[in-house]
Design a protein that fits this description.
By secondary structure, the protein is mainly α. The chain is built from nine helices and no strands.
Length: about 250
């Protein structure tokens, strides 16, 4: 048997056959990938459709209830609302869009300002609480309560005629209080009260020799002289008032 030696043409044909087979396999793999991608997309679309259908089934009762409720509410106000009024209102809103936008900007600015001021407000509130607590501990509120009671007693103790006279003589009263509250007068009264407080509990000798002995004291004589001077002024003032009353 004679062996057949492959020619160059046969070798080329064999190489082209192998290349065509590789290309065919590559195209089959690419086609398979595309089929798998289209299958996955189809499955995803099917799941999305099922989700939409399920959502629509869930929303259908809610939508029906909302529509029914809206219909009932509109039936209640249909005699007060006209379609032309709604259209006119809608046109007016469109014409004033810029105004509404400025209003919204102002609302946003106020909201931002409120957010900025909130910490300051909290600090001020905490400070106010601390101040009020300190005032309560120091007795301000108790003093104010007592002052209200004093004011209530004063108001209930004076008649309308008394208040009228008080108003007519308020300047004179304030002048008297002003003179009485001078530092030297207050110091003088304070010294007298301190001495009197010490001497009031001591035994007093009211015999004539004891009184004569006290009369030899220069301070006692000066006090009597000042007292008599004051009594003289009081008597003169009383006499003057009596003459005025007689004339009237």
């Amino acid at each position: 048997m004679i062996a057949t030696v492959p020619t160059q043409m046969d070798m080329q044909a064999q190489g082209m056959g192998e290349t065509s087979l590789a290309d065919l396999n590559r195209k089959l793999d690419l086609l398979t990938q595309q089929v798998m991608y289209l299958t996955a997309q189809a499955q995803h679309a099917e799941r999305a459709r099922e989700s939409r259908d399920e959502l629509m089934r869930d929303l259908a009762p809610v939508a029906n209830d909302a529509f029914r409720l809206a219909t009932e509410q509109l039936e209640e106000i249909q005699e007060y609302v006209d379609l032309n009024d709604l259209l006119r209102l809608f046109k007016r809103l469109l014409r004033n869009t810029q105004t509404l936008e400025r209003m919204l900007d102002q609302v946003e600015s106020v909201s931002e300002l409120f957010d900025t001021m909130m910490p300051l407000g909290d600090q001020a509130f905490a400070k106010a609480v601390d101040t009020l607590q300190t005032m309560e501990q120091k007795g301000y509120f108790m003093f104010a309560k007592g002052g209200m009671q004093i004011a209530d007693n004063i108001v209930t103790s004076f008649s309308e005629e008394d208040v009228k006279k008080l108003g007519e003589n308020i300047v004179l009263i304030l002048n008297v209080i002003k003179e009485m509250t001078q530092p030297e007068i207050m110091q003088f009264v304070r010294n007298i009260l301190l001495v009197a407080e010490k001497e009031v509990d001591k035994p007093v000798d009211t015999s004539l020799p004891a009184l004569l002995k006290q009369m030899r004291d220069p301070n006692v004589r000066r006090g009597l002289a000042l007292t008599m001077r004051v009594l003289s002024i009081v008597g003169a003032q009383a006499s003057q008032n009596e003459k005025i009353e007689i004339r009237n």
